[in-house]
Amino acid sequence: MPPCLIGLGSNLGDRRQLLVEALARLGRHSRIDVVACSRFRESEPIGGPVGQPTFLNAAAVLATSLSPRELLAELQQTEASLGRRCEVRWGPRTIDLDLLLYDGLSLNTPDLILPHPRLAWRRFVLEPAAEVAPEMLHPDVGWTIARLLQHLNTTPWYLAIAGPIGVGKSLMAGKIAENLGARLLAEEFDATRLEAFYRSPSSHAYQIELEFLERRGRQLASDRPLWSDKGRPIVSDFWFEQSPAFARVWLQSSRQAPSAVALAGGTDTTQGGRHSENADYHGAYESRLSELRSRIVRPRLTAMLHAPTKTMLERIRTRGRNGEETLTEMQLEALERSLRNQAVLPDRGPIVRLDAMNTDAAVTELVAAVEAMR
């Protein structure tokens, strides 16, 4: 029978007895075995109404012949039998049973998402889960439960906001920082250089992308004193991995460095001396990228924002940065594809994808995420 991981929580009534009874009822099911259960742990409520009682949390490994939807239905029936009512999102509850992992399955449907969409950064879930299932794999991130918890324990309390140009990264980062009293790390850029780039990307792509790479490397350098403040979160309106993702788009069409199609996994067909020169450009960028990656901090969580291309173009047109008006729908779509590809490369860590069109909902989600990964 496939192994499954569930999370349990309660902050109303006799919390311990409710968790014990939930496990007992699941264990009496003819097609469910309760393999292991973690210790019970106290945690502060995350999100939802203020003034809630503290939670008692646990994680359990199950073995079951039920399908994922059948197991979800059994969890929900157990909740209902123990008096669970869903009145307020993230509100107080007698019992909460979450299906976190079902073997190595990835599933995204209206009624069930696997792995659980917030498993990868919630400390109150990962700590008990690592106690009973350290080697279970998060199939989307590609890390074990133990490594996800280690990531929380060894990285600064830092959220990076990513997305294409015009998606609203700076607006979102500012709102998160305001809500949390976090330190805002804003992207540094030279407006004059950007204007020149947008007006002729083929003439400036290599230099501009290398400049952005260097600036991001300096801002995220691990030896900066700002990372030593453990009690205050940091949010940036950029992601270091934007650098190779954006470079892949700009350099791919650049006459200056056509060999950069190699960045996108293509084949370089340039000839003669130009081939040698372009290979030098590509090699210098890749070498510096690798060097800086070894010197920067990694975010505990990256938020990838999405918005319709036409909406991003409208925002770009109205914010009045010289040169940006030359951007096209095709370029923005290419940037988004490249960012998606960058996000699924190995060892990129937890990433949450959010609709930037609903700012309030996205802010609520990210504020709760930052608090949960403390």
Structure write-up:
This protein has 374 residues and is an alpha/beta fold. The protein folds into two domains: 3-149, Alpha-Beta Plaits, CATH 3.30.70; 158-372, P-loop containing nucleotide triphosphate hydrolases (Rossmann fold), CATH 3.40.50. The protein has twelve helices and 14 strands. The protein has helices at residues 15-27, 68-81, 123-132, 145-154, 169-180, 191-199, 201-219, 242-252, 272-293, 309-319, 329-343, 359-372; strands at 3-10, 32-37, 41-43, 55-64, 96-102, 107-108, 113-114, 137-138, 143-144, 158-162, 183-185, 234-236, 301-306, 351-355. Strands 1, 2, 3, 4 and 5 form a five-stranded antiparallel beta sheet that branches. Strand 8 (137-138) and strand 9 (143-144) form a beta hairpin. It is elongated. It starts with a strand and ends with a helix. The model is unreliable at 255-278 (pLDDT under 50).
Can I get a quick summary?
The chain is of the alpha/beta class and 374 residues long. The protein contains twelve helices and 14 strands. The protein has two domains: 147 residues, 7,8-Dihydro-6-hydroxymethylpterin-pyrophosphokinase HPPK (Alpha-Beta Plaits, 2-Layer Sandwich); 215 residues, P-loop containing nucleotide triphosphate hydrolases (Rossmann fold).
